[in-house]
Amino acid sequence: MDTQMETLEFQAEARQLLQLMVHSIYSNKDIFLRELISNASDALDKVRLAGFQDKELAVDTDDLRIELEADKDARTLTVRDNGIGMSRAEVVDLIGTIAKSGTAELLRKLKESKENSADLIGQFGVGFYASFMVADKVTLVTRKAGETGGTKWESAGEGTYTIEAADDAPQGTSVILHLKPEDAEDHLFDYTAEYKLREIIRRYSDFITWPVRLKVEKTEKSEEGETTTTTEFETVNSMKALWARSKDEATEEEYKEFYRHISHDWTDPLEIIQMQAEGTFEYQALLFIPAHAPLDLFMRESKRGVQLYVKRVFIMDDCEALMPEYLRFVKGVVDAQDLSLNVSREILQQDRQIQLMRRRLVKKVLSTVKALDAEKYRTFWQEFGAAVKEGLVNDFDNRDAILEISAFASTNSADELTSLKDYVGRMKDGQEHIYYLTGASRSIIENSPHMEAFKAKGYEVLILTDAVDEMWASSVPEFDGKQFQSIAKGQVDLDSDADTAAKSEEFADLLTWMTEALKDTVKEVRLSSRLTTSPACIVGDANDLTPTLEKMYRAMGQELPPVKRILELNPDHALVTSLRAAHQESKDGAAETAELIYGIALLAEGGELADASRFTRLLADRLAQAL
Fold it and tell me: pLDDT higher for 501 or 42?
């Protein structure tokens, strides 16, 4: 089967993407070469690593390189490397399909935004497809290092591709682009011109650590006046490891281009972080904070981590051991001097030096965020704040530092976020807690019955709407000596009226009766000091799970006993006083009215009724009786 030509169909999403590329009108077509060279560089990194790890592997690593060869007459451009290569199965898997989450989102955004296509193309790891912006046919010939026999793949960018054996294929991969004829008429897109290829390589790939060699013509004139023309491969990139240079030796543009190369992000980074540690344990790091969040930031299968090198030798992409999950958006390179080249992901998790590097890298990132100017910080928190707050749950060592750089919406301002330091500075005299309320949106929280007394008495409340807020707010004990307190849990005493005790005695019979009548849904009914206009609200005990957390745990498959909460009544509300009178007179329907009050309180906090049809029937009956 492997020796004959087959015609296969692209995956549906790959077909759609190819159509966008084939019929592309994007002005910045040059990025196709950046992507092909980047892929070739990755292949060279991998073959060198494979040679280090398996001494028995039959691979040639003596002269690893990337070569570009243009043929003006045939209008082809070949990009070849002698890297790891691909097997036939890998060619089908990696090129025939887009096995990447978020592909539908990529396609939608590519259709919507032609300006940012370069960013999106790279971000989703589908740079090879960019070849079809400049080529009406692409041929790929590859042989996996250590294997005999290669594979030839070819497609015109339509719905199918052919694949067949290529027995004489050398180690590595060659991509032959059959360039579109219309590009020959525009010198800006003449990808057979030496000056054009030099310009692209120097702009986008000068920092590649492997030699990028361009086949050029050399003309020499002899003493007799005869002219001879020869061709040779000339290295056109500097191959300097940018992270090993001092800031004085590199330009801002070089840093930006390096960031684009490793992140596949077409925009400039928000901030650049350079580190160098010397002494008993040496390493260099060049890290970047992006200016916008990747589309897969909150996808479980998304890759994270920085690139790890050992003495300039590439070891792995996405080294998770060097960067915690809540900083998964940080991109960059860490080059260690004292690690083994055979280090594995499992060993990294236990390596003391790696753990030391991780602690220092995290502290440096957090301190850099703290030092950002106001405009950069707003961008950072808008894009990455929800991810950073995950660290409050699982990074105990840096919890205080994360709290210091965190910002929250609050009732103090409809537009501006507040730091915890500023919140504490505005606290009322005698206020002991940092008050907060979690919910699905700001409007739901602001209109919650729990907020009424706090608004009336002028207490500031943090408005927490991210899913992670439910997790950290209940596990972080305090900030600057002030404990966090949910206004929807526990008892609240905001200088309540002196007659509260008297009212409790006055309503004692009603509270006892309602607790019994609603025993299947609540653990207690009591009077409230947090309500001013609503008839009732539902609160939890201080250590109870919130309804949102309860749902989250159940969604993860954890069996939990039902958590009963507390119903608080507003003794000054007409509905509550009427119910008390009805109960004293033993009127029919009091139990149903109590049930309605509970349902109203549940809906007011954004909860879900267990039996919505019964609630609406009871409500309709009550409205009919009132007319």
Answer: 42
Q: In 292-429, where do the E strands start and end?
A: 306-310, 313-319, 331-336, 408-410, 413-418
- The β-bridge relationship of strands 150-155 and 135-143 is antiparallel
Contact 139, 173 (CB under 8 A): no
DSSP letter (8 states) at residue 294: -
CA distances from 595 to 396, 569, 591 (A): 44, 13, 6
Query: Residue ranges of the alpha helices (H) in 169-263?
Result: 194-204, 252-263
- Using CA atoms, how far apart are residues 517 and 525, in angstroms rounded to an integer? 10
DSSP 552-605: HHHHTT-------EEEEE-TTSHHHHHHHHHHHTT-TTHHHHHHHHHHHHHHHT
Please state the three-class secondary structure of 20-53 as a single string: HHHCCCCCCCCHHHHHHHHHHHHHHHHHHHHHHH
Residue 80, exposed/middle/buried by CB under 10 A (0-12, 13-18, 19+)? buried
Tokens of 418: 């507040």
Q: What contacts 189, CB < 8 A, 6 or more positions away? A: 29, 134, 183
Q: How many residues does the chain have?
A: 627
Structure tokens at 399: 């919890």
How far apart are alpha carbons 262 and 584 in whole angstroms?
Answer: 74
Q: Say if residues 160 and 116 touch (Cβ distance below 8 Å).
A: no
H helices present in 248-373, as ranges: 252-263, 345-350, 352-370
pLDDT tens track for 56-103:
888 888 899 999 999 999 999 999 999 999 999 998 887 765 544 345
The interaxial angle of helices 12-22 and 103-112, nearest 10 deg, is 20
Q: Of 331, 330, 338, 346, nearest to 313 (Cα)?
A: 338
Give which of 307, 306, 304 is closest to 294, Cα–Cα: 304
Residues 6+ apart with CB under 8 A from 194: 70, 214, 216, 217
User: Are β-strands 565-569 and 482-486 bridged in parallel, bridged antiparallel, or unpaired?
Assistant: unpaired
Q: Which residues pair with 137 in a beta bridge?
A: 178
Q: Indicate the burial class of 100 (C-beta count within 10 angstroms; 0-12, 13-18, 19 or more).
A: middle
Structure tokens that stand for 407 in this block: 């910002």
CA–CA separation, 423 vs 401, rounded Å?
Answer: 16
In single-letter form, the type of residue at position 397 comes to D
Output the six-digit token pair for 23.
């019929």
Q: Tokens in use for 40?
A: 């070739």
pLDDT tens column, 24-51: 545 578 878 988 988 898 899 889 888 8
Q: How far apart are CA 535 and CA 169, in angstroms?
A: 80
Rounded to whole angstroms, how far apart are CA atoms 466 and 383?
A: 13
| DSSP, res 248 | G
